[in-house]
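re: ur question from the group chat, yeah i did fold both. here u go
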Amino acid sequence: MSEMDTKKMTPTDLHVKKEEGVHVAWADGTAHVLPMRFLRKHCPCAGCQGERDILGRQLMPIVRTTYDGEITAKGAELVGNYALRIAFSDGHETGIYSFKYLRELGEMHVGNQ
């Protein structure tokens, strides 16, 4: 990974605002605000995205949330030096958002606004 790629994937500031979303500033100067509902919709866990075998075949059905209430964070914690785990108000808390995935989501969210 080049120095530029490392900067792109390294958060310098990370704040979880329970009602609003995750605020991330990156070492390359970029910043993103990711709303909680958007993060919940894009949860990376196997239950939400479907577990796949080595050939890419889906082994487990994809489970989607049908929670109609406001999605907020009940809590969050860093996982090592590479990811963030969020406990959502709908009771879901198994997704581990790597910093790389948060960056991808940030770029996706900006592109869809």
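okk and heres the other one u asked abt
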Amino acid sequence: MVGAHTLMMAVALAALVHGHPLHTTFTEVVEVPGGATVTVRAFTDDLARAVHGGAALDDSAVAVYVRSRLLLTDQSGRPLPLAFTGQRQTADLTWLAFTAHPAGGLAGLHIANRLQTALYPDQVNLVQARYSSRSETLLFSASDGARTLP
């Protein structure tokens, strides 16, 4: 959905120009043959603080943190493991890559995104899912529980 990308770009630009006043992440969940790719984009300083008090973002600590705060559950209620496939950083942003294997595809998948909400009460997490010629955008704040993709 163009709106979610536009919003994330506006948030990133505002943060760079104004000293990073907003706390947000953007996650894309994309259905691919045999599973799904999951990409999390976050401000590096916020993510490092959430993972372990601001120290460098090592792969193991990042993977453990994201798996504990970004929860995917299939239609039958089974949690889906997120396999960490890497990270990269550019300027103040970090991209984290994972794969998942929902047996029935993304339709009906339950998603809960609590990334950084324990650290920032104003945290906003966007999740965009692309599957079966659809694009769905979900918005999560600190008080939100799981949502289901139609």
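fwiw on the second one: Confidence is low (pLDDT under 50) at residues 12-18. The radius of gyration is 15 Å. idk if thats what u expected
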